[in-house]
Design brief:
Blueprint lengths: L15 E5 L5 E5 H14 L18 E2 L8 E2 L4 H4 L5 E4 L2
Antiparallel strand pairs: 1-2, 2-5, 3-4
Length: 93
């Protein structure tokens, strides 16, 4: 869920999500495939929270943002994992 209680962008209704990258300008990803991969990884961890602070980026650990006055949670997903999805396109411009 997002901050306002609605589905977040990965659980939303978009077909694709575009990420701005440094090593190539854009990474276009199938949103459904991304969510399925992330959900599998979260389940493997039993949705466990990180014991590290959020800025240390423990992959697929959940982070509660209530400290920042937010009602949502997030997890960090490495781009290397995203790049392995089947329906991915790397755009040069």
């Amino acid at each position: 869920m997002g901050v306002a209680g609605f589905p977040g962008w990965v659980q939303g209704e978009a077909d694709y999500i575009a990420f701005k990258r440094i090593k190539y300008p854009w990474l276009i990803v199938n949103r459904k495939q991304l969510w399925e991969m992330v959900e599998t990884k979260l389940k493997e961890r039993n949705y466990s929270p990180s014991i590290k602070p959020w800025y240390e980026k423990e992959a697929y650990a959940t982070y509660d943002r209530s400290y920042f006055g937010k009602k949502d949670k997030f997890c960090w997903v490495p781009y290397e994992d995203i790049e392995t999805l089947k329906d991915v396109e790397k755009l040069e411009k």
